[in-house]
Structures are given as C-alpha cells and as structure tokens.
Amino acid sequence: xxxxxxxxxxxxxxxxxxxxxxxxxxxxxxxxxxxxxxxxxxxxxxxxxxxxxxxxxxxxxxxxxxxxxxxxxxxxxxxxxxxxxxxxxxxxxxxxxxxxxxxxxxxxxxxxxxxxxxxxxxxxxxxxxxxxxxxxxxxxxxxxxxxxxxxxxxxxxxxxxxxxxxxxxxxxxxxxxxxxxxxxxxxxxxxxxxxxxxxxxxxxxxxxxxxxxxxxxxxxxxxxxxxxxxxxxxxxxxxxxxxxxxxxxxxxxxxxxxxxxxxxxxxxxxxxxxxxxxxxxxxxxxxxxxxxxxxxxxxxxxxxxxxxxxxxxxxxxxxxxxxxxxxxxxxxxxxxxxxxxxxxxxxxxxxxxxxxxxxxxxxxxxxxxxxxxxxxxxxxxxxxxxxxxxxxxxxxxxxxxxxxxxxxxxxxxxxxxxxxxxxxxxxxxxxxxxxxxxx
Amino acid sequence: xxxxxxxxxxxxxxxxxxxxxxxxxxxxxxxxxxxxxxxxxxxxxxxxxxxxxxxxxxxxxxxxxxxxxxxxxxxxxxxxxxxxxxxxxxxxxxxxxxxxxxxxxxxxxxxxxxxxxxxxxxxxxxxxxxxxxxxxxxxxxxxxxxxxxxxxxxxxxxxxxxxxxxxxxxxxxxxxxxxxxxxxxxxxxxxxxxxxxxxxxxxxxxxxxxxxxxxxxxxxxxxxxxxxxxxxxxxxxxxxxxxxxxxxxxxxxxxxxxxxxxxxxxxxxxxxxxxxxxxxxxxxxxxxxxxxxxxxx
Lengths: 439, 297
Description:
heterodimer; A: alpha/beta; nine-stranded mixed beta sheet; six-stranded mixed beta sheet; 13 helices; B: two-stranded antiparallel ribbon
C-alpha cells in the first residue's frame, strides 16, 4: 500500500473521530440535560419536568386491587415505599434520606402510629423513567399504603400522575420544584421539604433591607430550577438585578468569564444559586478571582450545603445563605435529632436526612388515631392532611391546607468555622413563609 | 489603537485564563498527537489517564495538605502514567497493522474500563483540589485579582512545551524516534529496538497526560466525565494543530484555550458552537491542520 493514501486516510479518520465526538456531544446535550439537571440539583432542587403519562388502565386496576384487599383497621401493619436513588451521583443524598427515615423508625421501635411498617426501597436514580417504574412497582406489585422520598423534581413531576390516579399518598421529602402540587392539586400529594421559591424569596426580602439600593447581580445555571431560584430572589428583593447570568448547566467548569462580567457590571452584591459540584467550583473561583471580600455572596442554602462545605473549604467562609434548616439550628428537637443521628451514623445530620425524618414523623402523627385504615388511600391522605403542626428539627412547621407544601421558618445562615470544621451557623430567623410567597 | 486597548483592558483576564487552559490542554494533546502522529495509534485512553492523574492528586494531596505532598503526588502521577502508557503500548501492539478502527475500538473499550475503575474507586461525586499552599491565593494582574496557581500553570505549561520540543527536535533520542517513524526497518537495522521506542513514546505521552490531569485538577476540578470532555478538546487540538507536530499541538491548544475563554466572555450565546466552528474553519482552509505536513507523509 502506498504511503500517501494511507496517511491521508489516517488524517481523515482522526477528523472523522473528532467530528463524530463533536456531534455526539451535541446530540447528547439534549438527553444529558435531564441527567445533568439532577446532577447539579444533586443537592436538591428542582428542574425540568419530563411528562410521564401513567397507563390509566394499569393504575386503575392497581387501585381496584389495592382497595379490594381486606380492610385493615387500626394497628394493622402496612407497607411503605421508599423512593430514593441508591446508586449514581445522588447515592449519597439517597443514603442521607434513607438514614433519616430509618432513624425515626428505630426511635419508635420500627413502628409508625403504633403499627408495624414494612419498608420497600425502590431505586429512582434521578431519572423520571426509572422513577416511574419504581412508582408502578410500589403501587401495583407491592401495593404500598404510602410512599416517600424522591430527590429530583423531574422524578417528582414524572410520578405525580400515577400517584394521582392510584390515590396512594406520596410524601415528597426533597424535590423542590415550585409547581409540583399545582395544576392539578392532588389531595394525596405531600411535601416535607421546601419549594425552590421559599428560601430565595425570604433571602430577597432580607437582602432588600441589608443591601437596599445596592446593585445586585444574579447568577444561576440555565435550567428550570436555576430560573425558579433567581426569580424567587428577585420577587422577594422587589427590584431588578443589574445583571442576570445563566451559565450553561453541567458543562461549565470555569466561571471566570461570568465572574469577570459580574465585576464589570458594577454589582455590589452577588446572588448565586448552584448545587453539588458546580457549587464547589463556583464558590472556590469566587474567591480565586478576588470577588470574595469585595462583593458579598448570598444564595439559597444549597450553595453551601453541609455535604459540600468541606470540599469548598475556606473559600466558603462568610457566604450567607437562606434555608429552612441547618444542622446547627439551636432548638431542643434538633439537638436531640442531631445527637441521635451522630450516634447512629457517625456524622452530622443533613437537611436531606431531616426532611425524610419528618416524612416518617408526618406518617406517625397521622396514624395516632388508631382508627385510620392505611389501606384506604383517601382516608390515609385525609389523616395526613389533618396532622397540623409537626415538631420538626427545623422548628415547628405545618402543611399548606391546599397544596400540602410546608409553611415554615426560613433561616439566614453564615458559613463560619465551627469546632475546627465549617458549618452553616444560623444568624437570623427570617420568619415564616408560605410555600409560594408573593410580594 | 484605543479600541484595541479597551478590548484588552476588558478581556485581559479572559485572555490570560485562555492561555492557562490552553497550556493545560497542551499537556494532554501533545501526547495524543505524538502517539497518533508518530506511532499511528489513536489512543482514546488518554482522557482517562488525565483523569487518573487528577484523582491521584485528590487522594495523595487533598485540599489542605502541604506543598511537598502535592509535589510527591505529581511524582506518583508521572510514574502511574509511565506504567499505564507502557502497558497500553504492549496492549495495542498485537493490533498493529489492523487498521485504525480496530485500534480505536480497543482503546475506546480500555478507556471505558479505566473510567469505570476510577468511578468504582473514587465514586461519582464531584471533587475539588486546592492548589499547594505555596501557590494559593491571588495576585493582581492588569488591575484584577488572578489566582496565583493559574499563573504557575502557565509557567509549568511553557516549560513542558519547551522541554518536549527540545527532546524531540534537538536530541539524539528525539532523532531516533523521528527516524523510527520514517523508516522503522532502517532504524532496526542500525541495532535500535524500535519496540522500546514505541513503548517510550507511549509512556511519555501518558505520563504527560497524568501530570497534566493533576496540575489541572485545581482549575478543572476532579469529576467523572472530565476524561471525555478533555479528550474531545484534545482531539480538536490535534486536528487543528496537525498530527505529530509539537508546535502544532502547542498553537492548537492555545487557540482552543482562547476560543473557550474569550468565546464565552464575548459571545456567550454561541460559545458552545465556537469550538467546533473554529475546527471546521481551520479544516476548510488547511485540511492538514496548522502544522500538518502532507508531503512528508
């Protein structure tokens, strides 16, 4: 074979590979979005809503069988589905949730409302399709009386319909997308976590007082949750920000161009929402490029989540965030909860563990009246809706009568050195907020 | 002139950042280019080796450890790269002469394996690595704060580029490598073991990638998926710069670094397309790449 053609083909081959690689990246960008969404939301925020249509006949049949089982009165054991990611990027979140839930069970002798509980774990990953399969299995095969968990908003929105049709109560203990229980509002859907809008709106109102008249720049990843977070802040703040930046989600490893743009925008304060790995990178580069110390950095609590604080290191010190919880929150319930959690698992409690602990607590409280029949989904949902205030480690909170989203205190936290490590120290109680507060 | 001055003032930091990223890319691309250009093997494992270097840094010199630990980790990364590269050379050897597709499939498979092994060992969480204490903090450059570590990356990248260029173009060893590429049989006849040369180039390229991965970790982060991101960028650099050309890889990497940094700063909306647009433009004008040589091959 003559040299010339061989080598030309070699070059063409390489070009082909590069173009192929390029087009694969381009093509997969769409499908990646979903995964990526949940990736950055790994620390718990909501996002895109891939529509998931449940098969009506199948669910109807499932409902029939579920209600067809012999009516179990007070004290009868029941099955509970725990929908958490057990592998992949969110495995650590899922494990926090599982541990929080288990802690409450263990503290109550494996019982909720005085009844034996059989926990069935179902893998959701952060993928609506996998979540839907898990939901079908729990409802149709396992015939659980109630389900809880769900990290990702995409999964929450994906399984909403099937739970709506089956009537089985679902208690979301993380996913934060604002609209989860709106359009339509389901009587059997509950949430013990937060809405994306809640902490940001509270932070915005606080910022209006703290930084009134100062120019604020806002930055968040360019996907649904990023926009919900920033919009919540702007609505609470009450005036426009000088610049809104939406770096590409999941593919930005260097925030320098955006940081430079913030510096040149004349901003005096920066609001940022990032989560997971992006939050680590952003907060570190915020320091590296000299913004920290000159422009105060604020955001929702996920920006300095306890799970990533250690990775962020000193660069996170001084960042102020708003959230409905901090493991350092000073109240007796939280002190007991955190101590018990440390005893059981050897590490400090997290927001995710707390939210799932409260999901268990919500079920427990709803069944204190021994007459509630857990196999009657409608009665169970009604009992859950009627719980009233819940003595949570976050402080007492209640569920909105209509959407069953939490009405709760939002706290301003500041990252400080605590016992040789870093922690989100609560510096101010911002007050109680509705799930979707309006100015 | 004033327009140019204003442009520079506004974008000085972006330009500098592009240089730092470009030089990081160079440490990765130069190995890819040499192995493919000189040895005719498309080594898709290269990205995973880069990531391995980053994780070695994460394990041996986690944030908060001493400068010495960082330097030691660099040494370990180099050794790991050499060992892996040698192993790779041995693995792909039976496929010599079987065409590029077979080789690409083999190295692609190995890349997946190494990626998964890394993810089994270190998990799927995003990690970060702080620069060594000596290079922590920021300095003022053109009136803006700029991380000292990135300046160090620029210096290290330039030193590596000069060293690689010198070794391949100005030393006897480099001459042997180049000769082995042109006429393997003749070099063998001179009593030189060409297999050793092949393994040496593989090992050097992989060592550079692992080294680059660790040096790049404080800038690019340590996370699953970084291997493929970097590999694609390096492939673009090789295509743009021309196969087997060290100056080509150097200029190609600097160009891609600028497209990434300045592109995002100036044209945020179309930034994702600029990269491949630049590659397509260069291929249209100079299909063999900036420094590719058609006639010599």
